[in-house]
Amino acid sequence: MKKLLTKTPNWLRIVLIVVLVTIGANILSRFTNPAAHANANDCLSRDGDTGPYTNACKTPINARYCFRSAGLEKTCGVVELAPGETMSDLRDEADAARENHGFNRTTVHACALPYVPQDVPSTNNSARMVDGCRKPDN
Questions:
Q1: Same domain, 42 and 27
Q2: Tens-place pLDDT, residues 82-109
Q3: pTM value?
Q4: Which domain does 59 fall in, by range?
Q5: What percent of the chain has pLDDT over 70?
Q6: Same domain membership, residue 99 and residue 58
Q7: How far apart are CA 82 and CA 92, in angstroms?
Q8: Measured distance CA(13)–CA(16) in Å, rounded
Q9: Which H, E and C letters describe the chain, residue by residue?
Q10: Most buried in the list 15, 65, 101, 136, measured by CB within 10 Å?
């Protein structure tokens, strides 16, 4: 083993160390903070980018839709979608949100079960809230 290390160029050693540290940090993060890796937005699909969202994955997901105003007001709801299940077209939910405040955009975020979509602190700025996943309340 010592002969192998002495024959390995220094630049290759550095590259291998960086790769191993990166992979090790990712694996450690998955064990210590699994909610950060529960994002399932790639499971949401729509026909031609219009219409309601469908769970395209083979596992159930929790999807959250939010109607957001230009300010801080928002109305949100969470639905569990089985594989292949389609979310409602959100017309009734949008009408109910319009009664509370005028909204100008709708956002949808999904998480793998058992995690629940919610606003969580950003990894770059803890004062900024972003779409993320959290452990469910027990």
A1: no
A2: 998 888 877 777 777 777 777 778 888 8
A3: 0.71
A4: 38-134
A5: 96
A6: yes
A7: 21
A8: 5
A9: CHHHHHHCCHHHHHHHHHHHHHHHHHHHHHHHCHHHHCECHHHEEEECCEEEEEECCCCCEEEEEEEECCCCCEEEEEEEECCCCECCCCHHHHHHHHHHCCCCEEEEEEEECCCEEEEEECCCCCCCEEEEEECCCC
A10: 65
